[in-house]
Amino acid sequence: MVNYFFLITLLPLIGFLVNGIFGYKIKNEKVAGIIGSGTILGSFIIALIAFFQLLGMPAEQRTITVTLFQWITAGSFNISAAYLIDPLSVVMSLIITGVGFLIHVYSIGYMHGDRGFARFFAFLNLFIFAMLNLVLGDNFLLMFLGWEGVGLCSYLLIGFWYEKKFTGDAANKAFWVNRIGDLGFMIAMFYILVNFGSLNFGAVFGAAGSSIAPGSTLITVITILLFVGATGKSAQIPLFIWLPDAMAGPTPVSALIHAATMVTAGVYMVARCSILFALAPFTMDLILAIGALTAFFAATIAVTQNDIKKILAYSTVSQLGFMFMALGAGAFSTGIFHVTTHAFFKALMFLGAGSVIHSMHEEQDVMNMGGLKNKMKVTFLTFLMGGIAISGIPPFSGFFSKDEILTNVYLSGNYLFFGLGVLTAFMTAFYIFRLIGLTFYGNPRYDEHKTHPHESPKVMTIPLIILAVLSVIGGFIGLPHIVGPNLIDHFLEPVFASARTILPVHHIEAGTEIMLIVISVFVAVVGIFLAYRAYAKAYKPEVSRNPVYNFVQNKYKVDEFYNAVIVTPLRMLSNLLYKFFDLIVIDGIVNGSGKFFTSLSGDWRKMQTGVIQDYAVISVAGIIAIIIFVLLVVK
Amino acid sequence: MINNILSFLIFLPIILSIPILFFKAGKDKLIKTYTIAVTIVVFILSIILYFGFDASKSDFQFVEKVQWVTDFNIFYFLGVDGISLLLILLTTLIFPVTILAVWNSITTRTKEFYFLLLILEGSLIGVFLSLDLILFYVFWELILIPMYFIIGIWGGKNKYYATVKFFLYTMFGSLLMLVAIIWLANYATPMIGKFTTDYTELRKVSIFMPLNIQMWMFIFFGLSFAIKVPMFPFHTWLPDAHTEAPTAGSVILAAVLLKMGTYGLLRFSIGLFPLTFVRFAVPIAILGVIGIIYGALLCIAQKDMKKLVAYSSVSHMGFIVLALAGMTVESVQGGLIQMVNHGLSTGALFLFVGFIYDRRHTREIADYGGLTKIIPIFASLFLVVCLSSIGLPGLNGFVGEFMILAGSFASPNLHNNIYTILGTIGIVLSAVYLLWMYQRVMLGPVENEANRNVPDLNKREIISIIPILLFIVWIGVYPNTFLSKSEASVKRVIENVEAAKKNILNIY
User: CB-CB: which of A141, A168, A634 is closest to B444?
Assistant: First the structure.
């Protein structure tokens, strides 16, 4: 077959260059918007072609490698720029370009009239380019290129409205925290390169599968370091702090980067390296624990937030925690399944929130909303679909993937984390319907003379409708055993085959499966019911005096903690080193020795005769003296 | 001509600097046009050299060797290998770029300034091409003179303090080097059968000298290189010299002069005393890592943009020191490409600081804020350069840093990967200090009214910076264009080290 698959990444790159370099000349928004969205549509179509081409091949042979060129060659390093097209990367590419395309289209409406319209599309395209490199790269280094590239785009887009003070702070925080995670990734690469002699996925995974003993120190160290990278990019404990602040960016960015795609990079990375993680049971347990704790704590914060985007941001952190629970339980394809459904319903809800914020003139506090359901019908109905999906009501998509995660955690025997997961599922239904109740139901709590909420234009609502449809039916690609075939699990199977041979196999009885479904539906219904009763009515905001509630609402004061133990000491150390050690101690010694000789010269200045020959003689004599000293004494 | 191309590279700028002195004073435009034309010709010569260079050979090429001081067998001896080739290209690129970029910055004593620049270029090329130690020393010292005047005449407020410190500090180092050169040649006389300062002769015998003698020679050579790099704790002349120098001086100082130090370490310290270098690999790596972290921490404390960039040099050069200490093909190749990268990125950073200084006459970070809205082209290009310095994959800095760290990670000479792991902290810190500076200068609201009417980059400034941006992307995406040229030469250096290790095992 022809290797035109490199166009998947090339098209967004072209879009970036055109809008980035000539953007200031493109006065017509439509042109910039069509270039931006069209290139992504093109990538999506090529990804679809790749998908069908893979389907046409025997399951075990479904990999296509596209080598572009040798990237870095030196000594024993031989790293190529090459793409690996296999079921996992194709699924990810379809999500990225498919959901990405819808968000690009939506942005044409959302960013209408913005001074940086072309710049916005340039950055979005650059992001898609980097993200596709992340998932398509056939070696760790190219993945890392995409990995840091999406971090850069995240930085650029969070700080898109650079004239506001806090966007710069949020953008820097995102970049720095991610870089800390990236160090883990990088050091892991060094270990891999040194021990396996390559960074190529095929070579490393092959060698690991055949030569590494399960649970060995080396593999545990490598996987923990990789996971540190994942906690940065995918906003898990302890590096989750940047994601809520990242909401300073335009809302389509929050939908695309900080919900649907980039933040799932960590999940993708662990899934891609499934064989390495399968060999490190300790790391798997760690991932399960971190995932469960993150899911739980983020959900508790989400319950207390009033900013519509912050609620969704903590919800994202929490849902990412669910994905890591799946990975930690060894259910790699389930993790990717949840990535898929989450991309649909969370992108939908963010775009819906954007639609609300737009019509409310940049108001983001749900306490100042209320009663919008009749004024923005499409936004309301589609948001509701997303809400039902994330809550886990069958047959909406979120139900299938979340139920599958909880089932797998249950089967792995970690009942504590299973319980935490169920509790989190309950809170999820509650906080999302609290949001829906406060926003769309009840009494208007804004100044109705000044603000006139209205439905958004079609260019924004059509993407909402498409995503709503996907959120409703998207779950059918992964049905539970008792209902029907699990298509996505089956499609991804070859990628995880070698990991599965190492991991314990769990068989599930129909009775258990039904029981688990009943539990997860039950908690979702209770959560929705409670939230509906409390918030879907005329509501009067009040300030809580409960210290525990306030502590949670203040995000457990994690930011303050990090500031106190890392940021402030770092600045103090820098100042101390500069003002005391460098300027006084080191430079003091340098200048001191200079002064010493100056004072000596005061006495010796009589030697200054002004005759050049004298100086020459003295200089030569000095050098000879040093040589003699060296020859005699040093020897 | 092709046979004497190296002499042309050195002496074309030096000889053609003389006519400048006869230009009429006040004909600034003519002088500048003339100078940039000369530097472009030199750049074209170096391109010819690049294409004429046979990358498969590890020997010195285009060799020119003439007796200079017959009695002492001192030669006019030039040659180029993959290592010096890349640094020559860097040097000849930086000069025209800088001259174009600072076109209107020098308004007094123009004649003298451009005269000195050409002398400086010729002597810098001489340093990288000399294969006779005395010849090398002559060019090494020659550089001090134009640099002394460039900072001393066209510098800032504290220029006298900075020049004297720069001059004395480096002079101190070079005198020790001179002692070492004579001592080495003298000690080698019975082994070779004659007194000579021919590098290729000396390196054959220097490895057989007693280890304690080698150690002292190594230290004498090494100190002058360490000061030039500069390695911690010999770095304090650098921020002063950088801050006081005019933009062109800072750019050339950072981009090319500092490379003399790392080049010297690679060519002479490792080349002549491989075993001693191996013995000292760990302390050198430690100094490199201290430089990385310490330099980066000091950057965070800076309030002056130019000082910040100066201290960032200390940090970035630390990576190159670590690369040399690692002494594997991968790390040294990475170190070499990083010398070029640092020249491009830090050179460009100084240019951008210069652009903004020319407009507002202040370098205080606190005087700025929100410039992106006022000067968007400057903002985007400046960001690209910052990202290259931060080591973003896809741009040049990443390739160098990755190769250095990965190459030194399992270095047999360092016995431990802790140095590399600590070195990676510098990668986080570089993002911290550069993006923080970028935020304070470029982002946020415009708070200082004096910045409202700052003009954006003009065509000349954009054109001057484009070649650097081109190489920043080129090296990031396809570094093999350059890595392939130096691979054979670097391999040979490493093979010599390994061979010396084996030899010593045979002797003892």
Answer: A168
What is the model's pTM?
0.93
Rounded Cα gap, residues B355 and B456, in angstroms: 9
Please list the pLDDT of chain B residue by residue as tens digits (508 residues).
678 999 999 999 999 999 999 998 778 899 999 999 999 999 999 999 999 999 999 899 999 999 998 888 999 999 999 999 999 999 999 999 999 999 998 888 999 999 999 999 999 999 999 999 999 999 999 999 999 999 999 988 888 888 988 888 888 888 899 999 999 999 999 999 999 999 999 998 998 899 889 999 999 999 999 999 999 999 999 999 999 999 999 999 999 999 999 999 999 999 999 999 999 999 999 999 999 999 999 999 999 999 999 999 999 999 999 999 999 999 999 999 999 999 999 999 999 999 999 999 999 999 999 999 999 999 999 999 999 999 999 999 999 999 999 999 989 999 899 999 999 999 999 999 999 999 999 999 998 999 999 999 999 999 999 999 999 999 999 999 999 999 999 999 999 998 888 876 665 5
Cα distance between residue A490 and residue A497, in whole Å: 11
> What's the residue count for chain B?
508
Closest to B206 (Cα-Cα) out of B261, B283, B133: B133
**Which of B300, B409, B479 lies nearest to residue A72, judging by beta carbons?**
B479
Residue B378 · residue B456 · CB < 8 Å: yes
Structure tokens at A84: 């690996």
Report the 10 Å Cβ neighbour count for B37. 13
Interface probe, candidates B175, B182, B297, B315, chain A, greatest A C-beta count within 10 A: B297
Q: Could you tell me how many CB contacts below 8 A there are between chain A and chain B?
A: 162
A114 at interface of B, judged by CB pairs closer than 8 A: no
Would an 8 Å CB–CB cutoff place A168 in contact with chain B? yes
Q: CA separation (Å) from B87 to A160, A223, B145, B486?
A: 39, 40, 21, 11
- In this complex, is the C-beta atom of A148 within 8 Å of any C-beta atom belonging to chain B? yes
Indicate if the alpha-carbon torsion angle A408, A411, A413, A417 is positive or negative.
positive
- Of A490, A468, A473, A491, nearest to A481 by C-alpha is A490
Interface residue A221 vs chain B (CB under 8 A): no
Asked if the C-beta of A518 comes within 8 angstroms of chain B's C-beta atoms, the answer is: no
CA distance A608 to A611: 8
User: Could you tell me if A24 lies within 8 Å of chain B, comparing CB atoms?
Assistant: yes
Q: What is the 3-state secondary structure (H, E, C) of A344-356?
A: HHHHHHHHHHHHH
Residues of A in contact with B365 (CB under 8 A): none
Are B445 and A163 an interchain contact pair (Cβ–Cβ within 8 Å)?
Answer: yes
- B372, B334, B300: which is closest to A176 by C-alpha? B300
